[in-house]
Each structure stands twice: as structure tokens, then as C-alpha cells.
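Issue 218. Parser rejects a valid record. Input:
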Amino acid sequence: MLLRLFRKFALPLWPALLGLLVFEALQIAGSLALPTLNARVIDDGIAVGDTAVVWRLGAAMLALTFGQLVTNILAVACGAYASLKAAQHMRTAFFAKVSSFGFQEIAQFGTSSLVTRSTNDVRQVQQFLTMAMSIAIMAPFMAVGGLIMALTLDLALSWTIVATVVLLMAIMVWAIRGMVPSFRIMQERLDAMGSVLSQQLSGLRVIRAFVKEDAEKKRYERVNDQMTDAYMTVGKYFVTLFPLVMLVVGLGEMAIVWFGALGVEAGTSNVGSIMAFTQYLMLILMGVLMASFLAMMMPRAEVAAGRIREVLETEPAQTRLGSAESVSHPGLLEVSDVTFCFPGAEAPVLDSVTFTCRPGTTTAIIGATGSGKTVLMQLIVGLLDPTSGSVVIGGVPAEELTAEARSEQFGYVPQKPQVFGDTIEGNLRKGNPGATDAQVQSALRTSQAWEYVQGLEGQTQYRVNQNGTNLSGGQRQRLAIAMALVRPSPILIFDDSFSALDTQTEARVRDGIAQMGPRTQIVVTQRCSSAARADQIVVLDEGRAVAVGTHTELLESSDVYREIYSSQTGAAHE
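Output the parser choked on:
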């Protein structure tokens, strides 16, 4: 997974990667040359008392060290640039993919999981790439180069290097095999903790209203304890791993000093060569340690990369591949034998629903809770695709329209009013970026929002908090209605969008919409008093359109509608 992400997002940044390779190679070459120069200082200078050699070689070592400093800075800069840009492109691709998801994919992954994947998981991969693009070059060059240089100095001591490296590799294999599943569990529990926290924050008012603070605290404590247990499991490997590594490194140093001293005593080795060999051994061990550190980071990064790739490789069930860019009869909507069933569900939410909305008319959708009204609206605007049947918009089948052309046909207010962390004006321009100030003000007046907007600091420049938390429910709903009205769309869809408004305010809004010109309206409502104003009413019952007609006709012909009417008015129709 990591390799796939590297090829897709980091490899296109090849100039920075090439610079990283060149500068790292120069730095490592300097590191490999220094022990040899140091050995010559000892054997050819200090041992024989030749100070000229000491000064000359010392100056060369100083220049080489300064060159290493410069090349290291340049290498780090190239590596950081490449990793940061790769992470940027990764987040952009992730956001673009999630933006193409429908409700099915969002439900599959979960909102909190998608947030964690786009933040924590991307950060894990970025940190790994930052380290890997340096260590992956440095570690093998240092280990192999140091081994070659050390063997040229004293072949007899090479067994100490081999033994040390074998022990380190065995320790790392043991640690990685244990950490990979632990990291996966840790990321899953991080998702769970984020989900609980987001639910508690969004439902804070309900929690306080039912005095469930203690229960929610215990719920959070449980997921927090599970998260801590996962971190403790990983931590046990880390606290065991580093002492074992340092023990092996210490044993390797002890072996080289011990057996090297025996060689000097026997006259088969020089002091300078043994010191250089010790430094090369440290370079080899440093290379192995860096590779080991990278290997310890790899399991968590691999898990994170897999979670990112899972999202990037998910193809939305809902496709928008139409090519038609306009409709022939704006405002006309035909729903023909539409059935929709969620994947894995035993029964369809909608079953063979059929009705037609003529241009400039108003259609009310009414029915009991769970009868499929909201799903029907989502099918019409294109948030879901029907399992069977068809939706024809303006004389063109919906699936033949481009996403942009289909969106232009609707001004849509969802059941839960959605506003954004932006100014009042910025919210209205989400759906119509080219709206003039007069159009913005007209939409606010029509939705009956202008009165409260005038009382806000800055008026249309007043900044709304995320999800409109600094507005009341009715204010959010009127602002959402204004966002739909500012769009020059031939069809307006209100999915129970007047529920937070009193009947007088609703009447003023409806009258204001009528004065804006002939536009097709589809109004989902629970109120028979609201439905009575419509040109036709579609009665849904358990996902089926059991009756279509005017208020008067349905009172005469529909038992379901009469029951709804009686429950609201308290009197039976005669």
C-alpha cells in the first residue's frame, strides 16, 4: 500500500527525489571517508610525530565535515518538500474521492472514520515518507559502504559485524510481526473514539436535557480505555525493543574492541586501523538502526496507507456519466414507477411510485414517518439512484444529464437545514456564486430571514458558525430556504423545510415564493393545512403512492389521507 501511494503521489516529484539522492550520496561518501582520514592522522601523523600530516589531513576532515553539513541541509530540504507535496496531493485526491461518494459510501465508512483517515492517517504516511526518503537511501549506503571499508581494513574482525547485524534483524522481525496487528487495532479504536466524541458534541443538548452526562462520560471512558490498551500493547514492543537493540550494539562494540586489542597486541593490526574499523562498525550499526527505526514506523504507516487506499479505490455506486447539458421543458418532472431499496435491506423504501409535476404547479408529498418521503426527494435531486424506474427532468431522463445540468434544475432545502461556516452572504452564494446583492436581499426577504439578518452585526456579512450553532432552528431553516431561492432553478424542493416555522411565517414564505414567478414546487410536509394549498397531493404509505389528487378529492377518496387529516384537525370529514 505504501509503495502504491509513493508511486502515485511522490514519484511525480522526481526532481526533488533526484536532489535528495544526490545530496544524500555526497553526505554518505563524506561519512565513509572520515574514518580512513582519521586512521591516517593516527598512523601517519601522530604515531610518527609528523605534524604537517596532522594539519593537512585535519584540514581535509574539517572541509569534508562542512561539506556534509551543506549537503545534509539540502537533502533534508528536498525530502521535506517531496513529502509535504505528496501529502498535499494525497489529501486533495482523498477529498475529491469523498466528494464523489453518495450516502451509501458515507454510511459504509462513517463520517468520523473518513475524518480520521484524511487527517491522522495521511499524517502517519507523510511522517513515514519524510523519514523513508532519507533513511531508505542513507541506511543501505552506510551499511554496505561501511562494511566494504571495514573489510578492507581488517577481514578477521568481520564476523563481529555479521553477528551483530543478524541479531538486530531477528529482533526487528519479532517486533514487526507483533506490531502490525496492534497498529491496525489502534487505528480502528481511534475511529471509534472519534465517533463517540463527535456524537457527544453534536448531541450535547439532548444529553443535557435527559441528564445523561454521567452515562456519556462512562461511554467515553470505555472507548478511551480501549484506546489506551491498544497503545499500551504497542508501547510494550517499543520499551522492549530499544533496550534489546542497545544491548546488541553494546555487545558488538565490546567484541570489536576486545578482539581488535588482541590484534594490536599481536602486531597484526594498527591502532589507527582498529579505530577506523570501530567507526565503520558504528556506521554499519547506525545504518541498521535507522533501517530498524524505519521498520518500526512501517507497520502503522502501512495500516494508514491501506485505509487511505481503501477510500481512494472505492468506486461510488452512484455514477453521473450523462452528457446532456440542457433540458427541453424546464420545470417538468416525471417520476415513473420508481423503486428504491438499500443494499442488504429486506424490503424497498419506495415501491413503484409514479406522479408528474407540471411546470409552475405545486405538488405536496405527505405521509407518515418512515413512508419514504425524504428518500424520494433524494432520488429526484440525484443524491441516490433508483433501483428501478426512472426520473425524467424537463423531458430528459435524469441519468442522461450531466451532474451540473441536473443540479441547475433544482433549488433544494433538505429536511435538516444545512448552513456553512461562512457569512450570510457567502452561504447564499454557495448555490449561485454570481448572485447580485439585490438577489441576495430578495431571497432573504422572501424566506422571511431579512428581518433577523438586519439585527445581526454586519447584517449579510455576519459570520455563521459551523452548522449554524449561533442561529436558532427557525433562523437556520429560513437561511437554508433563502439559499435555495437565490438559485435561478425551475424546480424548488422543500423537504419538510417549514417545520420550524409557525403557520403565519410559512404562509408569508409561500406567498413570497409565488410572487417570484412561476416555478415548480415540491413540498414535503406533515401538515394537511400546508398540503391543501398544493395543486396536487401525493400520499405515501409504506413506500407506495397510494393516492394522488387535490385536497378535496383525497378527502373523498383516500382513507390514508382522511386519517391524517382527522388526526390533525380532531374532526372526521363528512
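Fixed in the parser; the record now loads. The two ends are 70 Å apart (CA to CA).
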